[in-house]
Amino acid sequence: MQVKVIMKRCFVLLLFLFFVPCSFGQTPSVSPTPAQSAPPEMPRTRNFGSSLKRYGKKDRKKTQTTNNERDDDVVRVSTDLVVNDVLVTNQKGNVILGLQKDDFTVMEDGAPQTIQMFASGESGTVPRSVVLIIGCGGNQGPYMKRSVEAAKVLLDKLPPQDKMAIVTIDLKLRLDFTQDKTLLKKTLDSLVPRDEGKIEFSTCADPLQAPDALRLNTKYRRHSGESDTLLAVLNEMFDEQNRQRIIIFQGDGVPLIWLKPDKETPYQISYSTLERSGLRWTRENPFSEFGFREIKEAIESSRATIYSVVNGIRFLGLSKKEQLARAKLSLIDLNKFYKWNKESDMPTIVGYYQYAEAETRTAGQTAMFKVAELSGGFTSFIEKPEDAENVYSDIFTVIKNRYVLGYSPTNRKRDGKLRQLTIQVRNHPEFTVTGRKAYSLQ
Length: 442
Fold this sequence. Notes:
Layout: H1 2-19, H2 43-46, H3 60-65, E1 82-89, E2 104-108, E3 111-113, E4 115-120, E5 128-134, H4 144-157, E6 163-168, E7 172-178, H5 181-189, H6 210-223, H7 226-236, E8 244-251, H8 271-276, H9 292-302, E9 305-311, H10 320-338, H11 346-375, E10 379-382, H12 388-401, E11 403-407, E12 418-425, E13 432-434, E14 438-440
Parallel strand pairs: 5-6, 5-8, 8-9, 9-10
Antiparallel strand pairs: 1-11, 1-13, 2-3, 2-12, 4-11, 6-7, 12-14
Helix pairs in contact: 1-6, 4-5, 4-12, 7-9, 10-11
């Protein structure tokens, strides 16, 4: 009987941990003076996430093909200019700098394109629009303080013409694009829990009351989380041409296991893991209204480069045996940080959740890796909080060393079809060009 009580309590807390919104991160109050430091609230801030309404309808095509059927509060700007950023390395992995526009060739569906915009990232001549997506609760609690400090260092390195927006994975646009670094830092600071090591269960009066807590978490799983937030950013945030589009996507990827299953899903987890992660306790469909296919399509149409930053012990690319060993460490470390259960109860808890922890973490990290790969970006891991500074520093270094190429495609049809890109360095087949390999024009 005691074991069942322990499992029940641990399950509810773990489920809440995976999907709790950022209850402790309050949008900072903004002083009315000076006026220039507090841009007025835009419709996008108030209505962020409204583009998700169109998913789940029976006829998806109708919601995507005509302007009349799109959400009025989602800003979209049509442009023929296709802007890509690429990293060039040699066979040893060293970055190649000093290339010029005439050194590159761009092919779209086999047809040569004329490069009209060119700059090195270091030159700063092409301004950037950077969106930071960051989680501030649950599994990500141990990493928040150091990650925020690392993000502030990156912010200081951005040139004045760059803009940044801050979004949290509870589907909230905390701050729209601004160049005001003081306001950006204030917003970042507001995301750090006031009492590190504790969770404020403001959304659930008693998290140990299983039916209410589970029902509430199912609601958040379906209508917020990392997948919903990433999709909303891709759909809604980039409406200016002639700017480099960048997303820094920090999280653990675990909520992505609740995407609607489809053929594009990068990692199919077992039914037993879904059962232990909450499927058996919910009376409604726990899956999102969309699957990985919709995220892939949004990446292709947004043309943003995504840098995935994974919090927690790495599971991706390891053997099943090593993943299980790391799952045990992950559960023990989280319990030490949050102090949910007595140390004497942990062997029972680990025995019950170890396999599910390994699978959900692997699935989440695989999905985060895939979104970065599709966009031409890369994935980093913050396995220990102190890793955050190096991770954010490396991201800025890569951004600075990338080349920005823009062109107007010879194929002007806005048919939404996928177009294949091939970007090479002329007369240097030994160089590797890392960047977006496909996009769509809508």
